[in-house]
Design goal:
This protein has 362 residues and is an alpha/beta fold. Helices cover 29% and strands 16% of the residues. The protein has a single domain, classed as TIM Barrel (Alpha-Beta Barrel). It has ten helices and 14 strands. Strand 12, helix 7 and strand 13 form a beta-alpha-beta unit. Helix 1 packs parallel to helix 2 and helix 5 runs parallel beside helix 6. The longest helix has 19 residues. The structure holds flavin mononucleotide. Flavin mononucleotide binds next to strand 4 and helix 9.
Length: 362
Amino acid sequence: MSDALAVLSPVKLGPYKLPNRLAMAPLTRCRASSDGIPNALMVEYYRQRASAGLIISEATPVSPQGKGYPYTPGIYNDAQIQGWQAITSAVHEKGGRIFLQLWHVGRISHPSLQPDGALPVAPSALKPAGQASTEQGPQDFVTPRALELAEIPGIVEQFRHGADCALKAGFDGVEIHGANGYLLDQFLRDGTNRRTDAYGGSIANRARLLFEVIEAVSSVWGSDKVGVRLSPLQPFNDISDSDPRATFSYVVEQLNRFNLAYLHITEMGKEAPGAAGSAFDLEELRTLYHGIYMLNAGYTAETATAAIAEGRADLIAFGKLFIANPDLPERFAKNAPLNEPDFDTFYQGGAHGYTDYPFLAD
Ligand SMILES: Cc1cc2nc3c(=O)[nH]c(=O)nc-3n(C[C@H](O)[C@H](O)[C@H](O)COP(=O)(O)O)c2cc1C
């Protein structure tokens, strides 16, 4: 196998044989209805991208409480399951595979998005800097309510229920969203977790919720159809950790015991000037993990091919390139030019900037 084809070579992931090593990264696009039901436009969008080795769906709230952005699709009721069924069927008809990303945003929400205008919940009552996206436009974040110890089993149950709904919706697996400053990441990192109970303090305590969620979700799916996404250096959503190397080395080593489908590390923040722990070389994590390893952020055909050929990753997830290029594997194979992504239509609108990017054949 020549290096040039490394990213296009097949790979085994859980029970699946993927025809190539390009994953479509999870991408929130805010095209569902306001009550979180996937629609025909979303069917078309995912169908167009079925040649990815694996599609990871946009982040999808596992409960009304888990929602933090308008027009995101949910995975907790029958109407949403039905909407997703049309998507999974379309992807399967095209020969693709699709995992659903299970999401609880924690404090990255706003009372206007919460049931009964409630406060968003978090490990600790610490207000994030910045503004929430709401149906009324950007609004300042509020101070969230710290979850009671007695509420934590209910959070685990939300993820289990979401996983069960995803199974009914015909997905091939699920990815637990442990990244990017949302609820599970808020528990992991000490900038957002100031708890003094069994879910705060030591790294083992901060990681407890993630591991309980993995067990609950695996009880539905079998762990070999469950992936986990982490973002050790990501500063997005006002999150940080005083020692990301210690925190994430522990978490990643522990993940070996679950026999997951894959571990997905997004390297966002690696380059951020002054990022907490930027001295920490993320490549260390690869040596600690023994299963299928996916990397993300800023990869091109060349850098992805090098990462795979050199054994730094088994798969690469592409975000913006898949937004703009529905047929990305074919373009890589033919060394064809790429469409440019249109940032203005990332999180809003209809078909424009969503399903109207041209295919190579066009
Ligand atoms: C429009 C947009 C939406 C995103 N939505 C999600 C999401 O739902 N879940 C997630 O884990 N990451 C999300 N991300 C981050 C991407 O998965 C990915 O990490 C990021 O785009 C960097 O990869 P890239 O350089 O290949 O685009 C989003 C990024 C963009 C640009």
